[in-house]
C-alpha cells in the first residue's frame, strides 16, 4: 500500500485497522443467523465456528495485501500453544494481533456482545487498538499517545475511588469453569466488597467498558495476546491502569491481568489475591 507521508504511517495503520474491523464486523453481523459448522477445541466451553475462521481469513488477507512485510498473530491460525513462539520470533517491526471473534460463545448463542479485536504492536508494545461490536455499532479505537475514542468521541475511565462504588468484571478461561476454581474463589472474596460483579464474555469489550467508565475494574487469568492487545491500549489511552496480579506492568504474555481506572487498582488487586 502506498503510504501517505503527510499522514504518518501509524495514522495510516490506524485507519486500516478500523476499516478491517468494520469489514469483519459486517461479516459477523451477516452470519449471526448462519454460523455454519461449530467445533469444540479443548472442551465444551472452548468453541470455534466457521465464521471465526472466515473473519480471520478476511483480516489476514487484507493485512497481507496492504502490509506484506508485517507479521500477524491470530487466534485460529496460530493457536494457543505456539503463540509465544510466533511473537518472540518476530523482528522489532510492526505486527498485527487479531481476535476474529472475541466472545465466540456469545456469538453462538445470539447474545449481542462480541467483537472483532485488532491490535498493532511495534517492538512488542501496542501502538494501535481497535475493538468493534458490530451489533451495537460501538467502535472503540486508540493510537498510542493520541487518546482513546468511542465512535469518534474521546473516552475516559470512571472516577470511582473505592471498590465499594465499583462494578467489576471477570471471565472464565475455558479450562477454569469449574467448582472452586481460582476465579470463583476470587469472586467470593469480592462479594460484599464491590458494588457488583459482571461476566460479559468478551475480554476485549471488558477492557473497553473500563476505558469508557461504564465499569471500574476487570481481572482475568489465562488470557491470550489476541484478547488483550487492542483493549489494553484503549484502556491506558483512556487513563486506566493495567498490571499483572502482582502489580507489575502488564505485558501481552502475562498470565494474569488486572485492569482498572487506577484509583481502585490496589484495592482490587489486594482483595482478589489468593
Ligand atoms: C474468550 C473471551 C472471554 C474470556 C475467555 C476468552 P474467545 O475469547 O474473551 O471473555 O473469558 O477466556 O477465551 O474464545 O471468545 O475469543
Ligand atoms: Ca478471545
Ligand atoms: Ca476468538
Automatic annotation (TrEMBL):
PROSITE patterns: IMP_1, IMP_2
Any Gene Ontology biological process: phosphatidylinositol phosphate biosynthetic process
Chemical reaction(s) catalysed: a myo-inositol phosphate + H2O = myo-inositol + phosphate
Alphabetized InterPro entries for the sequence: IMPase, Inositol_monoP_metal-BS, Inositol_monophosphatase-like, Inositol_monophosphatase_CS
EC number annotated for this UniProt entry: 3.1.3.25
PANTHER family registered for this protein in UniProt: INOSITOL MONOPHOSPHATASE, INOSITOL-1-MONOPHOSPHATASE-RELATED
Descriptive protein name: Inositol-1-monophosphatase
Source organism of the structure: Thermolongibacillus altinsuensis
Amino acid at each position: 500500500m502506498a503510504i501517505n507521508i503527510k499522514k504518518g504511517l501509524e495514522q495510516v495503520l490506524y485507519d486500516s485497522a478500523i476499516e478491517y474491523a468494520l469489514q469483519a464486523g459486517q461479516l459477523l453481523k451477516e452470519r449471526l443467523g448462519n454460523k455454519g459448522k461449530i467445533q469444540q477445541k479443548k472442551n465444551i466451553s472452548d468453541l470455534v465456528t466457521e465464521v471465526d475462521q472466515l473473519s480471520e481469513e478476511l483480516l489476514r488477507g487484507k493485512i497481507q495485501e496492504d502490509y506484506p512485510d508485517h507479521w500477524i498473530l491470530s487466534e485460529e491460525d496460530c493457536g494457543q500453544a505456539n503463540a509465544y513462539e510466533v511473537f518472540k520470533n518476530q523482528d522489532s517491526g510492526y505486527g498485527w494481533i487479531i481476535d476474529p471473534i472475541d466472545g465466540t460463545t456469545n456469538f453462538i448463542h445470539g447474545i449481542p456482545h462480541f467483537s472483532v479485536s485488532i491490535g498493532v504492536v511495534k517492538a512488542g508494545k501496542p501502538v494501535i487498538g481497535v475493538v468493534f461490536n458490530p451489533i451495537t455499532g460501538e467502535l472503540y479505537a486508540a493510537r498510542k499517545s493520541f487518546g482513546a475514542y468511542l465512535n469518534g468521541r474521546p473516552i475516559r475511565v470512571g472516577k470511582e475511588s473505592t471498590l465499594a462504588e465499583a462494578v467489576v468484571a471477570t471471565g472464565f478461561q475455558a479450562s477454569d469453569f469449574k467448582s472452586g476454581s481460582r476465579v470463583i474463589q476470587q469472586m467470593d472474596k469480592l462479594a460484599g466488597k464491590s458494588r457488583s460483579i459482571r461476566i460479559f464474555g468478551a475480554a476485549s469489550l471488558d477492557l473497553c467498558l473500563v476505558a469508557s467508565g461504564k465499569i471500574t475494574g476487570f481481572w482475568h487469568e489465562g488470557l491470550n495476546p489476541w484478547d488483550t492487545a487492542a483493549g489494553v491500549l484503549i484502556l491506558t489511552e483512556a487513563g486506566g491502569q493495567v498490571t499483572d496480579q502482582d502489580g507489575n506492568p502488564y505485558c501481552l504474555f502475562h498470565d494474569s491481568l488486572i485492569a482498572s481506572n487506577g484509583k481502585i487498582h490496589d484495592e482490587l488487586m489486594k482483595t482478589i489475591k489468593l
